[in-house]
Amino acid sequence: MDRRQALASIGAAGVAALLGGAPDLYRFAVPGRSAHARAPGPPRLTVRPDPGYARGRPLQVIDKTKPVHNLHDLAPAAPLNAIALTIDDGPHPRYTPMMLDLLAEFQVPATFNMIGTQVTENPALVQRLANAGHQVADHTVTHPLNLPRLSAARIEEEIAGGHDRVAQVTGIAPKFFRAPGGNWSPQVIEVAAAHGMICVDWQVDPRDWSRPGTAHIVRTLLAAKAGDILLCHDGGGDRTETIEALRTVIPALKQRGLVFVAL
Ligand SMILES: [Zn+2]
Fold it and tell me: How many A from CA of 88 to the centre of ligand 1?
């Protein structure tokens, strides 16, 4: 029995105890959502014990000079009906637990691209997320949107520092990196690769960070097709619209036969 199976078998309450408390994270109720409120108690963990649709066979990027835009850019091939939800700029003490509760409710794994400083500030939340079977990825230490224009030393610091903070908190070295704002350069890709990470971009972008309205986010995400990588956010501001939108989008995409995978 590995650690995650052990955690699953002892139940979420036990996990909370193992994670050193933070019981408030387990009781987080989404404001204004009383119709969906569950009975008091911890939300159930997701069923997937480990992230990754190719568990046991590490994912490879086919063209190492470009970031991955689509699941078809990865080998081994994703299931034909797979899509991947990526969630950036957390962890956030308010919105990340809301996101986790939503994903647990729909039994959907996701990939969280996390900002290193926030990882260090919210270790229990990051551990809860990783133990629920989500993938934790590196999104730099401080989220510099001008990453490609920084000095070589600063680029190294941002990418390696983000990598190390995730590894320290989760006990797992991150396998994926996303540049802030999707601002890539050959040097950024090279540094991420030197730290054993695949660079992951996206295909479907509702620009939820700009708070364009729940309806716009829903419409954009519903255009997703098999193989697409979707971009959403749990940090960087008020993410109520994003969470509202996903409550509609996730069941609708599942209904269409699409299957969410964590990278
Ligand atoms: Zn970002």
Answer: 5
Kindly report the pTM of this predicted structure.
Answer: 0.81
Catalytic residue among 73, 88, 101, 138: 88
Tokens of 234: 């749990």
Distance in Å, CA 168 to ligand 1 centroid: 21
DSSP H helical ranges for 82-151: 95-106, 116-121, 123-131
Query: pLDDT, tens digit, for every residue of 112-150?
Result: 999 999 999 999 999 999 999 999 999 999 999 999 999
Using only the alpha carbons of the chain, give its radius of gyration: 17
Residue 120's closest CA among 141, 96, 98? Answer: 141
233 classed as catalytic: yes
SS3 of residue 161 by DSSP: helix
* 130 contacts: CB under 8 Å, gap ≥ 6: 136, 170, 172
Cβ-contact 59, 76 below 8 angstroms:
yes
Q: Which CATH class is domain 48-260?
A: alpha beta
Q: Is 24 a catalytic residue?
A: no
Contact of 87 with 209, CB cutoff 8 Å: no
Residue 114 Cα to ligand 1 midpoint, Å, equals 8
Which residues are 112's β-sheet partners? 87, 136
Q: Which of 171, 176, 141 is nearest to 156 (CA)?
A: 141
Domain boundaries along the sequence of the chain: 48-260
Task: Give the integer Cα–Cα distance in Å for 197 and 176.
Answer: 5
Residues 6+ apart with CB under 8 A from 104: 43, 44, 45, 46, 132
Q: How many CB atoms lie within 10 A of CB 222?
A: 15
